[in-house]
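Our preliminary data section would be incomplete without showing what the modeling component actually yields. Below, a chain of 254 amino acids is followed by its predicted structure, encoded as tokens that our downstream tools consume directly.
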Amino acid sequence: MPAESEFGGRVALVTGAAGAAIGSTTCRALASFGAGIVVLDNHERRTNETAEALREAFDVPVMAAAADIGDRERMAETMDEVYDEMGSVDILVNSAAINVQGSIFDFDPEDWDNVIAVDLTACWWLIWRTIGAMRDRQWGRIVNVSSVAAYLGGNGREGPYAAAKAGLNEVTRGAAIEGGPHNIRVNAVAPGLVRSKWVDAQAEYYESFRAETPLRRHAEPEDVANTIAFLCSDESAHITGQVINISGGWYLTP
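Predicted structure:
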């Protein structure tokens, strides 16, 4: 794990940051090692509440930024605001995503467009928006939150999500190749099921998934957040372009 205060003076922007699972937990993990945090989420109330909780818990700069990452015009304004208030972004965590499930026989093409716009295109745009300043400073860390769905064809019910995450894995590798000479490391994490209120509410349905997982449990948000923090730290200094599977081995099961 990172050394104490390793990220002191750094600024981390986390998307989907006000969610109760991976996003907000990642904010806490990075703040605990000294990073200033930009809480970026499309839910304004939760964004402000998450930012306030971070200010109370950690002695780091925190900015609440309520915006939909799929809204290019609003995101351009938001990033200008981030740079004005917090300075350049050193650490980018692309965690926000949407998922519309259904069969290809019944799918609305507009749903496909929306999923790709948020889960893939917006992530690429944020990398593009931040990586230039990282190059100028010769330091940057980017972690994309992918999914085991990228390897499984969406299990036949979440094709757009799976396609977006598979594309995000390739964006990760491409950015790692270009960023490497400038001390910019780019990696991804690919969780399976992560315990959340949503998963807990459907515990009976997901019991079979848990039972088929070699480690016999769903991931906790901390399992993912701690891996993200590791990938941003000097403990992973020679790791880039990788997709780290965090599923307890679930993707191995037939």
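The chain has one domain: 11-193+221-247. The longest strand covers residues 184-191. Preliminary results of this kind motivate Aim 1 of the renewal.
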